[in-house]
Amino acid sequence: MLIEDERKIADFVCDGLGARGLSVEHVDNGHAGYERARRGAFDVIVLDIMLPGRDGLSVLAALRQQEIVTPVILLRTLERPKMRSHAPAWERSLRRSSVPT
Question: Does the pLDDT at position 80 exceed 60?
Fold first, then answer.
């Protein structure tokens, strides 16, 4: 399952996995992604962190709270430098803490 709102990225992932014989169910927002993921049986969930409606980390936390243990691959895409200022505070903090001193 792919939960990704950016069409180009979703198409790229779906096409790539489809070319390898895998079927991918795609949902383009956090609310619908959570509902579908909690009702379905998937081998893996590819989950964007920055989603409309409900962010990816919130979706993941809710799935784990429901004891859904499907493996999850988190996607993070910040294509343009100006988008970096929109990164969540935890992510900015993580980047700062990983820089060698």
Answer: no
- Structure-token pair, residue 37: 């993921």
What is the chain's length?
A: 101
Query: In 3D, which of 10, 16, 70, 14 has the Cα closest to residue 45?
Result: 70
Residue pLDDT, tens place only, 44-58: 999 999 999 999 999
Report the CATH number that the domain containing residue 55 is assigned in CATH: 3.40.50.2300
The partner residues of 46 in beta bridges, in order of sequence, read: 2, 73
Other residues' Cβ atoms within 10 Å of the Cβ of residue 77 = 12
d(CA 11, CA 8): 5
Work out the number of other CB atoms within 10 angstroms of the CB of residue 2.
22
Q: How many domains does the chain have?
A: 1
Strand partners, 74: 47
pLDDT mean across residues, the chain = 84
